[in-house]
Amino acid sequence: MQTSSDRHEYPAHWEADVVLRDGGTARVRPITVDDADRLVSFYEQVSDESKYYRFFAPYPRLSAKDVHRFTHHDFVDRVGLAATVGGEFIATVRYDRISADGRPASAPADEAEVAFLVQDAHQGRGVASALLEHIAAVARERGIRRFAAEVLPANNKMIKVFTDAGYTQKRSFEDGVVRLEFDLEPTDKSLAVQRAREQRAEARSVRRLLGPGSVAVVGVGRTPGGVGRSVLDNIRDAGFTGGLYAVNKAFPEEQKELDGVPAYRSVRDIEGPVDLAVVAVPVEHVPQVVTECGEHGVQGLVVVTAGYAESGPEGRERQRELVRHARTYGMRIIGPNAFGVINTAADVRLNASLAPEMPRPGRIGLFAQSGAIGIALLSRLHRRGGGVTGVTGVSTFVSSGNRADVSGNDVLQYWYDDPDTDVALMYLESIGNPRKFTRLARRTAAAKPLVVVQGAGSAPQGHAVRATRLPHATVSALLRQAGVIRVETITELVDTGLLLARQPLPGGPRVAIVGNSESLGLLTYDACLSEGLRPTPPVDLTTAATAADFHRALSGALADDSCDAVVVTAIPTVGEGPEEDAALAEALRSAAEAVPGKPVLVVHVELGGLAAALSAAMSTAPRAVSKRGDTPRPADRPSNAVQTPEGVGLIPAYPAAERAVRALAEAVKYAQWRREAVDPGRVPEYEDIDEKGAAGLIGGLLARGQGLTLGVDETCELLGMYGVDVHRALPAPTPEAAAEAARTLGYPVALKATAPHLRHRADLGGVRLDLADEEQLRRAYAELGELFGSPEELRPVVQRMAPRGVDTVVRAVIDPAAGAVLSFGLAGAASQLLGDTAHRLIPVTDREAGSLIRSIRTAPLLFGWRGSTPVDTPALEELLLRVSRLVDDHPEVVAVTLEPVVVAAHGLSVLGASVRLARPPVRDDLGPRTLPVY
Fold first, then answer.
1. How many CA atoms lie within 13 A of 445 on its CB side?
2. Residue 619: pLDDT band by 50, 70, 90 thresholds?
């Protein structure tokens, strides 16, 4: 480690695991004096050309002085980082702080020279780009604001690393050298570049796990049964298109195969490459298997072995070591305690799971942290009879078990541009990185539906989930804001997913209902009203309706411009048999196919024959077979386009009207979100905002301590800098003080008790309004004293009366997990009891501010309910936007509450406000790309 002469201790927080461009991983860490031998070995493996590009001259070997210089750092003015795989260097980067004239310097100099060297075998993997992100973050931490780099003109790769990074830069050419200078402050472009690289790298890391060219199952029993043997049989029986190997150290040396599968005692003995290893050995043997896999060049592991974090503290530490061990070799892990993975693509056909049957190929991606839930999802999608029926299959399936490495975020990155997946279904027991998940979900939902069930909030054992202070309902609202279709049960997950996979998105909430049962039609009508849809009166075809009658009615409904979706209700008739079922199914399918673009759902009552016939009608319909890679990337599709899924004519059938309508309602809301996402609005600029003055005030206040709630005057001053005027409230400890305050403010006034148990509780009688003169004020003061006690207990204040209106509450808070959240609701106990509060992530756009106001259930009170006067909602939207700007501009403002905000017919009045300042939580979405460390 570093010597006593070094100015800083070893910065362990700079260590990080990163995913590279090809999906492999590397470890980034500071270089220390202990790395001399590694540095020399690394340099010996670099080509002469790369050495020339680094030193601008032939430089065959490093001198002892060079080695000392490149391994001794003070971690302030001189810093070196290395990317390692298997403990050995594959790339290095260093910076040296310099003065304005280019000489070595110390702070306050804020410029540094930076230089890279990447081993030739690892060039093109994005190592330099990842190192640039990390060295830039380190430099910013040490007060360096600008990098300078000198590069030979022929070194195009390194020039591209700098120019593609997205930083603001200046380029010059002098003495045969290209000089690049760039600011290190993240820009919108640099963040976009970083996130695009993150998406490609993480997607490829999952693709290597789901589309391997060869698989080794380690821990295969010699006799049938057992986990390893079951996984091997499942892979073989599914028709895996790549190489398959059985591995067990207990195999006799002369054994060469097992049930036709090549057999080996160790992964090391396999002659060809192995892309994926399924590990099913006892937990005590896993470390040895990981080492063998890493040394053989295996790209990823599916660890089905149990006995890790789910078994207690010892297993939790064992799990941490498993992840560290695998990442040392650049491998990613699904699991441990995983159920497995499935890929139904024709050129893969991988069933590396404990599912005994390969699911039907289809367009639905499934992710489940729980193996039991994964089994339930696969089972429900596979069933043809009962519930939701029809041939709709799976593209890929991941059951992550303890989720120690690969998470739902990684799989979401993969699905985003997977041409074989049209709909993503996820069961999440927890969201480990809500800020990142929300960002990824918003991007994915703009291209394809994402349906999520979130469990009770318990994280997988051993998984470090940053705690959120937000209620479950708030998290759900934020997910919906990001375009996530949030449902409550597994049944709803499947119901909604199958509708979205089979039918186009509805153009609006108008629903036509046709069927042969008046009662079932009315149930469907009522269900539509309950879900906020706009149904037309049901069309009753009577129980005598034939298939031709259904065809005619459905065709007419679909052709009606006032209809956005159709629900067909059907009950069995006496004497109906398979032929009638098939005829009705074909009639519905052909009518829907003739007028595409509108979703059709069927509600059936005990009609197993019809459900099966609908499936058969679909499966015999002509279909275009797409090849892998032929489908355009979702990012290239218009985000507002209503895509017709592959296989038009797949009509989902539901056994209850409520299930069908609930799925349709989710599709309607999602389609509306897609249309609005095309133009999300803008964050307006206000000329009267004093951002610089507010920053100075906040800095001065925080100098007093780490966290504080501002006083009344400081609160008013800070909010005033953002155009938020708070009505003054003067203390009134005596009747005389109250009278003096009223004379200062001017009558009429309000007298309020501000004791914690009475504050904002007008229903308890602690407020007196419209006091027109001193006599009324003194009488009210005496009444409050008689009811609630002495002035010391009441803490009374006097405030100028505001125009009458609707009392509302505006809050903003920075949550350590989700980020900054803006909330709005009406004031009063009723709204609190109902939980009638809406939420948006900050920064809020003008469109989002408008939708925030309108999304609470009590919003009609703002818009003239029952003949009342509509209030000034534009003024309310502006207030929301100003509060959003304050919190977004100054993350030290960790909480703001405006209560009450009285919104009148013209204008509004902020009658109470509180602000809390603190050092903001560290944001992990603005720094360099890293894998979570548990």
1. 30
2. very low
